[in-house]
């Protein structure tokens, strides 16, 4: 029998964990977009306001923060109007937290589908991240409108080239959130009791990140450790880029970039590894 | 000569049950701690039994392009595992599977349907999950909607669908898939009869041309016989027979039917019964038709029984036979005429003619009655058997209704309409 060229081979040992190539996005574009569309359309079924919630939700949170942290606790907004100070923190944090929460349950929520049909499993978390990215971009429009209004009122100097950092921050942010979610989903598929710990860690992480306060309130001796958190760097750089009221720490940005990419790579690796055997155990 | 499209080489699949993947971090961590850090010997740590199950053992199989291959076997024989391996849903423990072309898997209907979305959205969603590109679905959308027969509700969320509509829509998508290899598991067991007929028709159409390769698992031997060119029979993770459908199916049925055809006891002491009656023997003897070795609807069945009879005296004895379906409905309850016997051995016979019972599972009970009212002994479910379907020509592959299926002739008479006479 002569050797025939095969299109595909399935073998236990030849399961290449890190076979993640650029062609992945081209081959799975339809599925990626279809899942994203499903999540977007389904999440606003039978709600009256529908997609308006994408705008409304960060604005309502801003109102709560303004009352609790601005008026009651009286945390400094560094001289900025409350709404422009809180909005970026809220939008970026919500993106991170929603993204992690959505991707964390990939294996558990989709076990019935994974058990019936094959497609690259990692499409699911990628599309979940895509949905969050779309929401983030829509919320950015709200932020930019508010920002433009106060800029016109003259609350802060006109920004310069630092705004070019924003796309980079978005990439880092997405990599970090997706990577964290992937790691958690791989762990959660095996150890269900980690769910509560992850929820706890996520809440703790919010307080370790300057979401509703400015990083300047951290005591100087703790600062080096505090800035080790890539999300701190992302949010603080974001504020700095728009309001130019302090220096941008490029060395921190470089560190946070490396950290985010490492988290993403670790996430993809763990996820792909888990995806091979998950059906037999979940 | 043949173009092989899928090839399995020494494929095995091991499932670990029990300890493995305990799902608790604490257990795995203490296990790791004991093994690696405290270096306790492994045998002390086997707190729970670890079960291993070879769902498949050394499967070698090749499938040719354009072939419709059926899989047959009892539950747990490994058929579904085999399909899941080929579909890449789970990985083999050993061995290698090679193949060419795109695979679509239909292990259930409506995989990934979202309840909040409309029928139309779900066509795109399900189709994409099954491996179609968006533009392919767009091209086939009208065909899919027409096939489903639920045009009026296509823009309604599927959560408002009846289960029948849901299945229709799901199958309409599946039927219009266009892969090189199609893997189907038992999906024909759903839907109403008219729709089932439509699906089989569609399956015949898609398998008939365009070199489509189909792997098909079903318990519906009628469908296997009609659709497949080759059938593989599996048992306990291994292929026991493969070849022409008629042969493989008949052998499988024969084996499956060796259930409860015969009971015999040497002495009255060990035999079931009481002071009046002790059963010596009951047996069911099918009179197979030439060339067949399984009970189908045409096969006459002989029932033989023998019993020891005590304390007879002048009482009149009647022996009765009840035939029930496995689901409990009584098909008939017949009895002998009354006889007076003294102590001794009595034997009885009965013939259930062919072309009487419909296909299904049945059991037989015997009862013995004294003086028309006084029940001496009832031997419940002493024989059981399955009747398989047999059809020569029919476009309908679903279950034939009714408990009996007699060959009463149905006659039609024709009278032409004579034009000109009013």
Automatic annotation (TrEMBL), chain A:
Entry's family note: Belongs to the ABC-2 integral membrane protein family.
TM ranges: 47-68, 80-101, 122-152, 164-188, 200-218, 252-271
GO molecular function annotations of the record: ABC-type transporter activity
Membrane topology type: Multi-pass membrane protein
GO CC term, one of those recorded: plasma membrane
Biological process (GO), any one: lipopolysaccharide transport
DNA repair keyword on record: no
Main location: membrane
Localization in the cell: Cell inner membrane; Cell membrane
Lineage, uppermost ranks: Bacteria, Pseudomonadati, Bacteroidota, Chitinophagia, Chitinophagales
InterPro entries listed in its UniProt record: ABC2_TM, ABC2_TM_bact-type
UniProt KW keywords: Cell inner membrane, Cell membrane, Membrane, Transmembrane, Transmembrane helix, Transport
Domain of life: Bacteria
The keyword Nucleotide-binding is assigned to this record: no
UniProt cross-references to PROSITE patterns, sorted A to Z: ABC_TM2
Pfam family, one: ABC2_membrane
Listed name of the protein: Transport permease protein
Residue ranges constituting the ABC transmembrane type-2 domain according to the UniProt record: 49-274
Automatic annotation (TrEMBL), chain B:
ABC transporter domain boundaries: 39-261
Keywords: ATP-binding, Nucleotide-binding, Transport
SMART domains attached to this UniProt entry: AAA (SM00382)
GO molecular function, one term: ATP hydrolysis activity
InterPro entries: AAA+_ATPase (IPR003593), ABC_transporter-like_ATP-bd (IPR003439), ABC_transpr_TagH-like (IPR015860), Bact_Polysacc_Export_ATP-bd (IPR050683), P-loop_NTPase (IPR027417), Wzt_C (IPR029439)
GO cellular component: membrane
Pfam families: ABC_tran (PF00005)
Family designation: Belongs to the ABC transporter superfamily.
Protein name: ABC transporter ATP-binding protein
């Amino acid at each position: 029998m002569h050797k025939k060229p095969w299109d595909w081979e399935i073998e236990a040992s030849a399961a290449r964990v890190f076979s993640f190539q650029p062609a992945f996005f081209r081959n799975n574009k339809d599925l990626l977009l279809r899942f994203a569309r499903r999540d977007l359309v389904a999440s606003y079924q039978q709600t009256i306001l529908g997609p308006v919630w994408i705008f409304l939700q960060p604005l309502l949170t801003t109102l709560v923060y303004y009352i609790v942290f601005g008026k009651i606790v009286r945390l400094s907004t560094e001289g900025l109007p409350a709404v422009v100070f809180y909005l970026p923190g809220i939008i970026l944090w919500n993106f991170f937290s929603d993204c992690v929460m959505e991707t964390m349950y990939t294996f558990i929520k989709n076990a019935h589908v994974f058990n019936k049909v094959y497609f690259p499993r990692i499409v699911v978390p990628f599309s979940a991240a895509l949905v969050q990215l779309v929401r983030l971009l829509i919320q950015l429009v709200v932020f930019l409108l508010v920002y433009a209004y106060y800029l016109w009122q003259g609350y802060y100097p006109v920004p310069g080239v630092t705004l070019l950092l924003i796309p980079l921050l978005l990439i880092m942010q997405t990599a970090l959130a997706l990577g964290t979610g992937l790691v958690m989903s791989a762990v959660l598929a095996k150890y269900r009791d980690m769910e509560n710990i992850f929820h706890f860690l996520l809440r703790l992480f919010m307080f370790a990140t300057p979401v509703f306060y400015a990083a300047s309130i951290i005591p100087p001796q703790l600062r080096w450790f505090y800035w080790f958190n890539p999300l701190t760097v992302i949010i603080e750089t974001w504020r700095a880029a728009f309001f130019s009221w302090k220096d941008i720490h490029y060395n921190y940005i470089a560190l946070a970039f490396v950290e985010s990419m490492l988290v993403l790579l670790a996430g993809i690796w763990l996820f792909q590894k888990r995806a091979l055997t998950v059906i037999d155990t979940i | 000569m043949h173009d092989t499209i899928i090839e399995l080489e020494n494929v095995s699949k091991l499932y670990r049950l029990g300890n493995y993947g305990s799902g608790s971090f604490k257990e795995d961590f203490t296990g790791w701690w004991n093994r690696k850090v405290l270096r306790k010997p492994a045998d002390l740590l086997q707190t729970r039994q670890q079960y291993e199950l070879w769902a498949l053992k050394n499967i070698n199989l090749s499938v040719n392009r354009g072939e419709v291959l059926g899989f047959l076997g009892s539950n747990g024989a490994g058929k579904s595992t085999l399909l899941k391996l080929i579909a890449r849903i789970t990985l083999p423990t050993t061995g290698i599977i090679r193949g060419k072309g795109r695979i679509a898997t239909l292990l259930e209907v409506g995989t990934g349907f979202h309840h909040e979305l409309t029928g139309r959205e779900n066509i795109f969603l399900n189709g994409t999950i099954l491996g179609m590109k968006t533009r392919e679905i767009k091209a086939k959308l009208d065909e899919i909607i027409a096939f489903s027969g639920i045009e009026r509700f296509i823009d309604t969320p599927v959560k408002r669908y009846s289960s029948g509509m849901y299945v229709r829509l799901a199958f309409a998508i599946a039927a219009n898939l266009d892969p090189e290899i199609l893997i189907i598991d038992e999906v024909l067991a759903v839907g109403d009869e008219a729709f089932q007929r439509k699906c089989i028709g569609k399956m015949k159409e898609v398998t008939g041309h365009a070199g489509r390769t189909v792997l098909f698992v079903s318990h519906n031997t009628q469908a296997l016989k009609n659709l497949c060119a080759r059938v593989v029979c599996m048992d306990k993770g291994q292929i026991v027979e493969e070849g022409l459908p008629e042969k493989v199916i008949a052998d499988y049925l024969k084996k499956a039917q060796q259930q409860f055809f015969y009971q015999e006891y040497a002495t009255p002491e060990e035999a079931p019964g009481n002071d009046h009656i002790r059963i010596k023997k009951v047996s069911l003897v099918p009179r197979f038709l030439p060339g067949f070795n399984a009970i189908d609807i045409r096969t006459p069945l002989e029932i033989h029984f023998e019993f020891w009879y005590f304390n007879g005296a002048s009482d009149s004895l009647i022996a009765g036979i009840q035939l029930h379906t496995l689901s409990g409905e009584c098909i008939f309850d017949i009895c002998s005429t009354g006889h007076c016997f003294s102590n001794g051995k009595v034997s009885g016979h009965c013939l259930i003619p062919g072309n009487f019972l419909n296909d299904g599972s049945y059991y037989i009970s015997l009862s013995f009655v004294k003086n028309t009212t006084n029940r001496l002994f009832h031997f419940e479910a002493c024989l059981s058997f399955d009747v398989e379907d047999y059809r020569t020509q029919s476009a309908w592959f679903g279950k034939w209704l009714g408990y009996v299926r007699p060959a009463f002739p149905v006659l039609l008479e024709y009278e032409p309409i004579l034009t000109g006479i009013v």
